[in-house]
Amino acid sequence: MIKIENKKILARQIEEIIKEAGQFILHHKIEKVMEKGNASNVVTNIDIQCQNLIIEKCKKVLPDSVFLAEEEGQQQISEQFTWVIDPIDATTNYVYDFHHSCVSIGLYYQRKGLIGVVYNPYLDECFVGIDGIGSFCNGKAIHVSHHPFHEALIMIGTSPYDKHLAEITFAIIKELFIEARDIRRSGSAALDLCYLACGRIDAFYEQNLQPWDYGAGKIIIENTGGKIKALVENAFDELKPTGVICSNGQCQERLAEIVLKYSR
């Protein structure tokens, strides 16, 4: 059991690290863009340099911890402390200068989410979730919305790295669009989860996410009263790839009914 005060200290340390990483992204130039399998999945020299910076800083905070990170094979899970890191979530947005990308850091202890931090350097918004304490944006407490499903604004992801999921994904999106208020797509799953946590949207669906996509956002949602479900059994406990559905709670039942009709 980790004491509340120790959680708060760790959260402040992670905030400092993530803000430094965010400023690194803003103030360094992309020199190289490489494909990872297809044109939808790209990585830049800044992704790699930013991840190296984060790992170096996190090792100083918890020297015996391990890292599950997107780039360059840093993919270990420990029964003690595991950092789950996406140095730039929405790299494609970043390459296009779309100004909607973020840094995501989740800290897990015994495979349970302890602290999640997501930082959008373009808006200088830092979302923090601390297990058993709550979730915050720039220090102010955040909470999910209360809209029912028919009034829901639903954020969706299209799993662009997994084009074979297109038929299922867009069949689900069509039903969501018809039944709910409207849909949106931002390109950053980590920020989508934060936007759910603070009431800017009411629900979220994507057919496949990596653990570094959801690792921090999941913790932030869980500490606002939101509901989040993995489409792959035990994926959250094992930090594995999975589809994700989440909502303000009021939308969860109908959201799950629609998604699971296609995803079983």
TrEMBL record:
<protein>
    <recommendedName>
        <fullName>Inositol-1-monophosphatase</fullName>
        <ecNumber>3.1.3.25</ecNumber>
    </recommendedName>
</protein>
<feature type="binding site">
    <location>
        <position position="89"/>
    </location>
    <ligand>
        <name>Mg(2+)</name>
    </ligand>
</feature>
<dbReference type="GO" id="GO:0007165">
    <property type="term" value="P:signal transduction"/>
</dbReference>
<comment type="similarity">
    <text>Belongs to the inositol monophosphatase superfamily.</text>
</comment>
<dbReference type="GO" id="GO:0008934">
    <property type="term" value="F:inositol monophosphate 1-phosphatase activity"/>
</dbReference>
<dbReference type="InterPro" id="IPR000760">
    <property type="entry name" value="Inositol_monophosphatase-like"/>
</dbReference>
<dbReference type="GO" id="GO:0006020">
    <property type="term" value="P:inositol metabolic process"/>
</dbReference>
<feature type="binding site">
    <location>
        <position position="86"/>
    </location>
    <ligand>
        <name>Mg(2+)</name>
    </ligand>
</feature>
<feature type="binding site">
    <location>
        <position position="213"/>
    </location>
    <ligand>
        <name>Mg(2+)</name>
    </ligand>
</feature>
<dbReference type="InterPro" id="IPR033942">
    <property type="entry name" value="IMPase"/>
</dbReference>
<feature type="binding site">
    <location>
        <position position="70"/>
    </location>
    <ligand>
        <name>Mg(2+)</name>
    </ligand>
</feature>
<dbReference type="GO" id="GO:0046872">
    <property type="term" value="F:metal ion binding"/>
</dbReference>
<keyword id="KW-0460">Magnesium</keyword>
<keyword id="KW-0378">Hydrolase</keyword>
<feature type="binding site">
    <location>
        <position position="88"/>
    </location>
    <ligand>
        <name>Mg(2+)</name>
    </ligand>
</feature>
<keyword id="KW-0479">Metal-binding</keyword>
<dbReference type="Pfam" id="PF00459">
    <property type="entry name" value="Inositol_P"/>
</dbReference>
